[in-house]
Amino acid sequence: MSGQGQRLNVVPTVTMLGVMKARLVGATRGHALLKKKSDALTVQFRAILKKIVSTKESMGEIMRNSSFALTEAKYVAGDNIKHVVLESVKSASLRVRSRQENVAGVKLPRFEHFVDHGAGDAKSDLTGLARGGQQVQACRVAYVKAIEVLVELASLQTSFLTLDEAIKTTNRRVNALENVVKPRLENTINYIKGELDELEREDFFRLKKIQGYKKREIERQELAAKMFSEEQQAEKISLKKGISINSAHNLLEVGGGKDEDIIF
Amino acid sequence: MYGFEALTFNIHGGYLEAIVRGYRSGLLTAADYNNLCQCETLDDIKMHLSATEYGSYLQNEPSPLHTTTIVEKCTLKLVDEYKHMLCQATEPLSTFLEYITYGYMIDNAVLIVTGTLHERDVQELLEKCHPLGMFDSIATLAVAQNMRELYRLVLVDTPLAPYFSECITSEDLDDMNIEIMRNTLYKAYLEDFYNFCQKLGGATAEIMPDLLAFEADRRAVNITINSIGTELTRDERRKLYSNFGLLYPYGHEELAVCEDIDQVRSAMEKYPPYQSIFAKLSYGESQMLDKAFYEEEVKRLCLSFEQQFHYAVFFAYMRLKEQEIRNLMWISECVAQNQKSRIHDSVVFIF
């Protein structure tokens, strides 16, 4: 993977190191949390999958029963009972509404059905009054059950899809953190540490070198001082003898220089 | 003059009676039903039906057959037979035949009125009407906005006009009243038909009222059972019961106050023919009641063929054919929905 050896381009200072370390801690914690989230979502996912399978099976059965109830109603009440019922409907009395549910941080849509009594429920009670009324009501009950199952199935399936998306995103983030961000940060930290160490070494080396120079300087000075003190001793001795070696020396040397007393 | 129809009936009615008996012999038998119940797919059903009288009607259907197509084609056959008989008939047989279709007309009229009330397209509604119940001005029902207009514009020209006197009082056409309206119309129709048959005299006046009485009683029981627990008041319920039949008037009194099925059962058990029907049901169950009624009806209809020289055979034939179409619909649906185990629940064998 291309991200393995990379690091961020930063100035390798101590503050930067602190910043990088903080980020690494943040990344690690984030990684752990996301992993937990992903696990929780996967558990939910599996549960929903199981429920979907069982609901689909029951739906097959229920739809079959409701179609059969319709056939029975048609048999007893005459073939055009379907048209009679369809024509006498104004607006749906069984409705579906959706709301959001929060599951482990993911907003899942959930559908539920409710009966809208205002839409003229009671009048359909008299359908098939003279024959087939019972079958029509039974058919109604069967279809209401079918609708309930269908609504539940729809809500499960949408949750399934949404959860799937959410799990994919979370896993992508987990993997990204694990395989890209953290290594990069670690590499950057290592680089900064390396650079800092090198700087320290350089400094150290410089210090050592300067110490070496200073030491030599001091030694030289000590040597010079020693020689000077030896000369001083010699001068003192010669002075005692009446000669100033230093000044003799000095006289000769200074002779080339300007002396006010001497005219020529 | 009962007993002497043999002298004069065949002059006008002989040809058609023979025709209707011919049609009756073309009804599916138990063996046919057994074959059909063994079918696995709708194509098998089509194949079996092509060996019966329905052959020519189902031949040209394309292969992915639908249950509604089968029912449509069978109904078409019924309509063709009816029209054939109607155009050969003279008075009073032609009036009698027309009476048979008033029930369908009532259903169609109510369907169109309801549909218009809910703003549906007229053409679609016309397609959903029963073919036997069509009349010329049916499309204009869609124009009416309330009962008076409805009556004035359309219904006064149809044979349904006199039936509306009973429910012309309600001005609103909302859903509750429509179902009550439909049943009130049907009640008036039954009474009218009953009186007409009485006037015809002879064997018809013996047999038809019997059949119509059964129909009226059955409707009374159904109305009672289906209105338990709804907003229909007792008085309204009373008004929907017909003024003839075995249950009139005492049975109606009892039924009007019934509040659950067991009370209905105890009211019915005083009448021997209905007691046997209710004996087939166990306590508290009313699902099979409709099938029991159908079986009883079929039995009575078949008996009417035993006598000759009366018009009840026509009525009986139409009803039996309807039952056959119902059976076919049931069988096709069971086969199509893979519910073969339930097929024998509701097939009523005619012979």
UniProtKB/TrEMBL annotation, chain A:
InterPro entries: V_ATPase_D
Listed GO MF terms: proton-transporting ATPase activity, rotational mechanism
Lineage top rank: taxon: Eukaryota
Alphabetical UniProt keywords: Ion transport, Transport
Pfam families membership: ATP-synt_D (PF01813)
Family: Belongs to the V-ATPase D subunit family.
PANTHER family: V-TYPE ATP SYNTHASE SUBUNIT D (PTHR11671)
NCBIfam families: V_ATPase_subD (TIGR00309)
Protein name per UniProt: V-type proton ATPase subunit D-like
Source organism: Canna indica
Automatic annotation (TrEMBL), chain B:
SUPFAM superfamilies per UniProt: V-type ATP synthase subunit C (SSF103486)
Keywords: Hydrogen ion transport, Ion transport, Transport
Any one GO MF annotation of this record: proton-transporting ATPase activity, rotational mechanism
Gene Ontology cellular component list: proton-transporting V-type ATPase, V0 domain
Lineage top rank: taxon: Eukaryota
Keyword set includes Transferase: no
Subunit and partners: V-ATPase is a heteromultimeric enzyme made up of two complexes: the ATP-hydrolytic V1 complex and the proton translocation V0 complex.
PANTHER family: VACUOLAR ATP SYNTHASE SUBUNIT AC39
Function of the molecule: Subunit of the V0 complex of vacuolar(H+)-ATPase (V-ATPase), a multisubunit enzyme composed of a peripheral complex (V1) that hydrolyzes ATP and a membrane integral complex (V0) that translocates protons. V-ATPase is responsible for acidifying and maintaining the pH of intracellular compartments and in some cell types, is targeted to the plasma membrane, where it is responsible for acidifying the extracellular environment.
Protein family: Belongs to the V-ATPase V0D/AC39 subunit family.
The protein's name in its UniProt record: V-type proton ATPase subunit
Annotated organism of origin: Canna indica (Indian-shot)
